[in-house]
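Session log. Operator J.P. requested a structure for one protein chain; no other inputs attached. Running the standard single-chain path with token output.
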Amino acid sequence: MVCIVLAAGYATRLYPLTENFPKPLLEVQGISILDRLVDDLDKCKKITKYVIVSNHRYIEHFNSWQKNKKLSAPVVILDDGSVSNETRLGAVKDVYFAIESEKIDEDVIVIAGDNVLDFSLNKLVGYYGEKGSTCIMRYFEESEEKLRKCGVVKVSEQDEVLEMKEKPQKPESHWCVPPFYIYAKNDVPMVKKGIDEGCGTDAPGSFIAWLCTETRVYAMEMPGSRFDIGNLESYERAQKEYTGIIK
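Structure written below.
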């Protein structure tokens, strides 16, 4: 399984912290967001390669990080060529860029490099092993205002995704989807098809919203909580409240 880390955003809502520095390398209680994610995932020993997709503006920060990083699998840093928030490729195109650049032909776990979790992503890997089909996560979100800013799913009693919509104005459920996905090997080539057929490319969940109309996708209930580092307020909250992974 290849791990693709989406780290090419510009995090304008975190300025001035991220004006010249990538959000995934911001530290939460002394450890970077990226380190927390990959160090946890590395424990499952199923990852064959880590692919970090950066933009051109921040690429050297990730190159420096890589020099001092030791994981159980190789780490590749990719530059998607964008230089500003206005010229960014978008998350789905960055995933496709990684797949094409590295000729990926195996299962893929896609993770956003700006979330801190209090549970292990290895639980999602285990869930995928049980289902054998593309998997996502879901958590109950009470606030309709927040639901309108994320991916929302309807699921069956067997966890199968019946429908997913990105940023719906009228959410049809309270199941919100965080940006962590496992694409089954057979679905990896579908990323190009989804883009060609007009699926959204800015939000990473847009591909899943399209894919669940083509094939079976399952949604595991998230076994904990997360800190989505989106602005200065959420970053400060994580610094104060995050207590690490609950085992």
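Operator note: The chain has one domain: 2-241.
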